[in-house]
Amino acid sequence: MKKILVVLLFSAFLLNGCGSGENKANTAETPEVLDVKLTGPEKVNPGENAAYEAAVSYGDEAVTDADEVEFEVWKEGEKDASQMYKAKQEKGVYRLETTFKEDGVYTVQSHVTAKKQHSMPTLKVQVGDADAASNQTEDEHSHNH
Q1: Which of 1, 24, 32, 58 gives a 20 to 30 Å CA spacing to 145?
Q2: CA-wise closest residue to 77 among 120, 135, 130
Q3: 8-27 per-position pLDDT tens digit
Q4: Cα 91 from Cα 49, distance rounded (Å)
Q5: 29 within 8 A of 23, measured Cβ to Cβ
Q6: How does DSSP classify residue 117?
Q7: Exposure letters 3-36 (e unless 16+ CB within 10 A, then b)
Q8: Could you give the CA distance from residue 4 to residue 56 in angstroms, rounded to a whole number?
């Protein structure tokens, strides 16, 4: 009789352990999406200072501790000659100040890694007399991984 009682108690203990694991799985939070809003001037003159900002959020929370935030800048048709810049954080917004030296259509792309996600939104910039309207064929969409 003692053996049956021990087996029943052991079975109840096992079932209780399995049940509490299910509760933990059911209460786990659904992951949010990393959102990066890239803003800055879309028209500038050569030699003029321009500031670009990446406002990073995860759900409703601003991300002030991103793993990495960089800006990549290149002139259209010259992606191989792109330049990477580390972002400066100011009050939860990641910032780049740059100057475009010559006329042309440029792309500014932020590379943000945070919360085990990566986002790479882009922004086209018309510098000087460049014709941005005829150069809209390149992909301008955000990329999330």
Answers
A1: 24
A2: 135
A3: 555 555 555 555 555 555 55
A4: 21
A5: no
A6: E
A7: eeeeeeeeeeeeeeeeeeeeeeeeeeeeeeebbb
A8: 60
| CA separation for the pair 50, 109 (Å, rounded) | 14
Q: What does the alpha-carbon distance between residue 132 and residue 42 come to, in Å, rounded to a whole number? A: 10
Stretch among 19-23, 66-70, 120-124 having the lowest mean pLDDT: 19-23
Digit-coded pLDDT (tens) for 30-48: 778 999 999 999 999 999 9
Token pair 């659904």 is at which residue? 30
The label of the residue with tokens 């879309």 reads 42
> Which percentage of the chain shows pLDDT scores above 70?
69
Sequential DSSP letters for 23-73: HHHHHPPPPPPEEEEEE--SEE-TT-EEEEEEEEEETTEE-SS-SEEEEEE
Lookup: tokens for 40: 């800055």
In one-letter notation, the amino acid at residue 137 is T
C-alpha 78: how far from its chain's center?
24
* Rounded alpha-carbon distances, angstroms, from residue 129 to 17, 76, 103, 133: 70, 14, 6, 12
Q: For residue 135, what pLDDT is reported? A: 47
